[in-house]
Amino acid sequence: MKTSIHRALTGAGINEKIESIQPVSGGSISAAYLVHTNSQSYFVKWHEEAPTDFFRQEALGLRFLEEAKDLFVPSIYGWGKKYIVMEPVIGTASIQTEEELGRAIASLHCSSGSFFGLEEDNFIGELPQVNDYEESWVAFLRDKRLQPQIELARSLGRMPKERNRKAHYILDHLNDWVPDHKHPVKLHGDLWGGNWLPGENGQPYFIDPAVWYGDHEFELAFTYLFGGFSKKVYDAYQEMKTIDVLFDERKALYQLYYLLVHLNIFGESYGRQVDRILTKYAK
C-alpha cells in the first residue's frame, strides 16, 4: 500500500518522506489511512475502483459545507481518480461538543439556496445521486430522490409486487403529507452519527458529505434513523431553527429515501424497514 499512498501524496503536491502508515477503520467504501511524514500527518482515502469524479465530488461537498457559517470541515490537500488527501481530524469531545454540533447543523440549515438540488450530480454512498434543479420540493423529492431509488431497487430485483405498488402509491400522493414550499437550504446529505468527528479542541467536524439544497426536515429525519445524536444536539438546534410541529408525521417518509439507498447497497436486510414505512403511508 505504501506505493499507492506515495502516489496519492505526490498527486496532491506533497513530496515528503513517509515515516508510517496506519490503517483507519470505520469506512465501508474506501480504504483509509493516517499517514505520518517527516513534516506532518495526512488522512488518505484510496479506492481502486472509484466511480468517475467520486473524490472530486467529496472535495466539492466539503467546500460546499465550509461556505456555511460556523462549520468545520477538514482541509483538502488534493484528490485524484482513486484518492483524496486531507487534514486528519483527531480530537476528543468536550462538554460543549454536542451543543456546538446542534448549532452547526442549524447554521447549515440557515444557508438558503434558490432551487432544490445542485449544479452537478454527486453520490450517496457509491450510488449516483441526481441533483437536477427543481423549484418544487414535492417534485424534487418524488423525481430526484425517491423514484430513482425505487427504479434501481426494481432493476436489482428488490422491489416485489406489493412493495412496488405501495412505493408508487406514495410517489403519486406525496402532496398528502409533504408541504410543497420553496425554501431550500444547504444539507450535508449523509448526516448520520459516523459522519462527524470531534477536532483537537472538541469542535465538531463534518466529513463524507453528499450535499445538495433541500428541506431541512429531510436531513433531520435521517439523523433520527440510526441514532447517534443526543437530546443536547436537538435542543441546541432548536435554539436557532424551529422544528415544525408536524415533523413527526412525515419523518418516516423522509427516512424512506435513505432506507431505499441501504436496500440498494446492502440488500434485503433493509427490506423490512422499507416495507414498514410503505405500509404506514400507502393505502
What is the strand arrangement across the widest sheet?
1-2-3-5-4
Q: Write down how many β-strands occur, each being a DSSP E stretch of 2 or more residues.
A: 11
Compressed to H and E, one letter per element, the order equals HEEEHEEHEEHHEEEEHHHH
**What is the arithmetic mean of pLDDT?**
96
User: Which structural class do you get from the secondary structure elements?
Assistant: alpha+beta
Helix count, DSSP H or I runs of 4 or more residues: 9
Proportion of helical residues: 40-55%
What does this structure look like?
This protein is an alpha+beta fold. It is 41% helix and 16% strand. The protein contains 9 helices and 11 strands. Strands 1-2-3-5-4 form a 5-stranded antiparallel sheet, with helices on both faces. Strands 6-7 form a two-stranded antiparallel ribbon. It starts with a helix and ends with a helix. The mean pLDDT is 96.
